[in-house]
Amino acid sequence: MLLSPIGIRIKTLSRCAMAEAALLGGFLCTAVLAQAPKPAFGLQGISPSFWNLVDRNAQLITVASGFGFTEGPVWDKAGYLWVSDEVTNKIFRVNLVDGQKQEVISLGDPDGNTYDTQQRLLDCASVLRAVIRLSPDGKSYVIVADRYQGKRLNSPNDVVLGPDGAIYFTDPTSDLPAGQKQEIPFKGVYRIGKDGQLQLLTKELTEPNGLAFSPDGKKFYVDDSEQRNIRVYDFQPDGTLANGRIFGDEKAGPKDGVPDGLKVDMEGNLYAVGPKGIWAWSPQGIHLGTIVVPEQPANLAWGDADYSTLFITAGTSVYKIHTKVHGFVPYL
After folding, report:
1. Single pTM value for the model
2. Chain CA centroid to CA 26, Å
3. pLDDT digits over 136-191, tens only?
4. Fewer CB within 10 Å: N-end or C-end of the chain?
5. Measured at the alpha carbon of residue 193, what is the angle toward residues 310 and 311, in degrees to the nearest 5?
6. How much is the pLDDT for 108?
7. DSSP H or E stretch at residue 35
8. Rounded CA gap, 142 and 115, in Å?
9. Helix, strand, or coil here: 34?
10. What Rg do the C-alpha atoms of the chain give, in angstroms?
11. Quick check: 46 and 33 in contact, CB under 8 A?
């Protein structure tokens, strides 16, 4: 999320409690988030199968708070969580024992993150209009991709590693820096091959956001924050997509949040940021239930030694909840 002197560009409706915040000063976004009434945590099972994913008595635990707006969680076995803060324009390491935050690097509007196969952090740096790779100490970076056919990307949003080892990311315009022009006349989903070449996969979404692969590598999911739905494609051996169709809808009230980050468990169930929390979906596209979070989530990640804990970035905080499943982590 990019703050400007005259207002705030809202990446999705989940970014602030009210869209009207766009008319206030950008400096008020954190205050708006803080003042909005928080819903109580809850587990809303729609299907009995939901309780195969999470225990009825599972608790949501606050890992850390006091951020501007959290995004892009990535768990590390050393005992910390990478977290982007889109208001302070920094990436942090959060100690999972005491919740202490260590600033790693300042970047204009860091967003979704993932590790590559060498455990190096990839970040969607919206102000740079690029996907970048951080150095091992996190103090510097190199640009992995910032142009398509000679034109600058819009504002890369989220990123995932594919079953072929390539990098896949979404490029909406929601964080296009104020005063800069959109050079590419669409909002795409891209693949960065091992040779560094950038390939457009689809431009049919109106505001592509979160993305994920199924554990068997045969399905590719991407959600659309404007259409408020999730699409699924058949992933082809050559890294292209086919047979795109609607997987599920996450429509709700105008202030209830929109689809954002996506993750999948080893059984193929999908966990999608949606209105008021994390929506759990079966591989067949059945909404099984919702983990209601006190602050509107933006993204999530699997973590802990068994990858059974969901770490959730939501508003000014980071939360976690233990599940009964094991998460699918593409870079492992």
Report:
1. 0.90
2. 22
3. 999 999 999 999 999 999 999 999 999 999 999 999 999 999 999 999 999 999 99
4. C
5. 10
6. 83
7. helix 29-35
8. 14
9. helix
10. 18
11. no
Tokens of 120: 């190096």
Residues in the chain: 332
Q: Which residues, in sequence order, are CB contacts of 92 under 8 Å at separation 6+?
A: 67, 82, 83, 84, 85, 101, 102, 103, 104
Which residue is it, tokens 């094991």? 326
The full DSSP string for 165-207 is S-EEEEE-STTPPTTPPP-SSS-EEEEE-TT--EEEEE---SS
Here the tokens at position 151 are 């034109």
Q: Say whether domain 2-322 belongs to CATH 2.120.10.30.
A: yes
Dist CA 332 CA 35 (whole Å): 40
Letter string b/e over residues 207-235, b meaning 16 or more CB atoms within 10 A of that residue's CB? bbbbbbbbbeeebbbbbbbbbbbbbbbeb
Q: What are 32's two structure tokens?
A: 């708006």
> Can you give the pLDDT at residue 2?
37
